[in-house]
């Protein structure tokens, strides 16, 4: 969880410096690190992004532990991070991605609460 929170701090700095594609990358990785920590509660671990996404939905979103809107936010970041990292002509617009920070904070905070509840 520390890594997720640190990555959010990196995203803020990148956004302020105008590095919007890398900002999207860091938002995704903040969620990825938080989701990885959460999946450890069920003794799941994977380095495969698509597998982590699938497990997150199966174990936490579908049962209602994580709100559907946050699962969808993870999906949006998943898709856009890939596009931003590997698409030759992708350039995100500030007004389209600015609000993703708040949703990412919500995602990470929700997971932090769940983990705290499980491990006191």
Description of the molecule:
The structure is a single chain. By secondary structure, this protein is mostly helical. It has one domain: Four Helix Bundle (Hemerythrin (Met), subunit A). 77% of the residues lie in helices and 0% in strands. It has six helices and no strands. The longest helix has 21 residues. It is globular. The two termini are 15 Å apart.
Keywords:
single chain; 120 residues; mainly alpha; Four Helix Bundle (Hemerythrin (Met), subunit A); 6 helices; 77% helix
Give the SSE layout.
Layout (H helix, E strand, L loop, with lengths): L1 H15 L3 H21 L8 H13 L6 H19 L7 H4 L2 H20 L1
Please name the fourth-level CATH homologous superfamily.
Nucleotidyltransferases  domain 2
Radius of gyration: 14 Å
CATH class: Mainly Alpha
CATH arch. level architecture? Up-down Bundle
Structural domain tally = 1
Largest sheet: none
Poorly predicted ranges: none
Order of helices and strands: HHHHHH
Instruction: Look up the CATH topology.
Output: Four Helix Bundle (Hemerythrin (Met), subunit A)
The helix/strand class is mainly alpha
> On the 0-100 scale, what is the average pLDDT?
94
Count of separate DSSP helical elements: 6
Distance between the termini: 15 Å
Strand content: under 5%
The number of distinct β-strands equals 0
